[in-house]
Amino acid sequence: SQQGEEDPQALSIQEGENATMNCSYKTSINNLQWYRQNSGRGLVHLILIRSNEREKHSGRLRVTLDTSKKSSSLLITASRAADTASYFCATDANSNSGYALNFGKGTSLLVTP
Amino acid sequence: DAGVIQSPRHEVTEMGQEVTLRCKPISGHDYLFWYRQTMMRGLELLIYFNNNVPIDDSGMPEDRFSAKMPNASFSTLKIQPSEPRDSAVYFCASSLFEGADGGYTFGSGTRLTVV
After folding, report:
1. Least confidently predicted of A44-58, A89-103, B45-59, B70-84
2. E strands within chain A?
3. B95 to chain A, minimum CA–CA distance in Å?
4. How far does A42 lie from chain B, in Å, by closest CA?
5. What is the pLDDT of residue B61?
6. Rounded mean pLDDT of A50-79?
7. Residue B85 in 3-state DSSP?
8. B113/B89 Cα distance (integer angstroms)
9. Strands A107-112 and A10-14, how do they pair?
10. Which residues does chain A have within 8 Å of residue B24's beta carbon, measured at their own beta carbons?
11. Closest CA to A113 of A88, A86, A83
12. pLDDT > 70: what percent of chain B?
């Protein structure tokens, strides 16, 4: 079952602009993660933010988490053509029965030169 | 480390045939996951293992699907008999432990086409 839902489904920007993607989820979590997938490749882990954190940075990436609204955002600053990919948020089930990530359907980002 | 290794990269088979997908996780990772990705349904968790023990197989579509992890360095996902609706990209991923900062490491996937 899919826990996270990304918005927008597709985003097209020019190089140098910032890209913002949002993720909403339904149940309480321990952590939320963002992944990138280039066409025809596997997913690559970008960043993990824990439920007691509100903001996290990694290079040009900035992630926020609002547990009261059950939402997260991923900001990519000064985008490059190489950032063109699909971006997925993933949440753990926060369940005592185990640990597995549920992925949304992703945001497709196109960065044009 | 070479990362998570999946084989084959592509598989085309006829309906009714048996298909076996293989995965070698990263050494030392305690968790192994099998996901299936389609345009319609996105990424679906099929099954995952912790220390070679299956923990949750509720995502396995039908009895036609089975997965094993005989040791810490190898897992298989088998479909028997295969059907056209099984066509998808199957990913294997591994993880150190729950909530590890590095998240999951995914393999490159196996693109399965059942004709």
Report:
1. A89-103
2. 5-7, 10-14, 19-24, 31-37, 43-50, 55-58, 61-66, 71-76, 85-92, 101-103, 107-112
3. 10
4. 4
5. 87
6. 97
7. helix
8. 9
9. parallel
10. none
11. A83
12. 99
Asked whether B113 and B13 are in contact (CB, 8 A), the reply is yes
Q: Answer for the pair A73, A20: CB distance below 8 angstroms, yes or no.
A: yes
Quote the strand ranges of B1-115, DSSP E.
5-7, 10-13, 19-24, 31-38, 42-50, 53-56, 65-71, 74-79, 88-95, 105-106, 110-114
What single DSSP character describes residue A4? -
Q: What is the mean pLDDT of chain B?
A: 95
Token code pair at residue A66: 């609002």
Residues of chain B found within 8 Å of residue A53, distances taken between Cβ atoms: none
Residue A94: pLDDT over 70: no
Q: What is the average pLDDT across A68-75?
A: 97
Q: Which residues of B touch A104 (CB under 8 A)?
A: 42
Cβ distance A99 to B98 less than 8 Å, yes or no, reads: yes
Across the range A16-20, mean pLDDT stands at 98
- Assigned token pair, A64: 């926020």
A45, two tokens: 């882990």
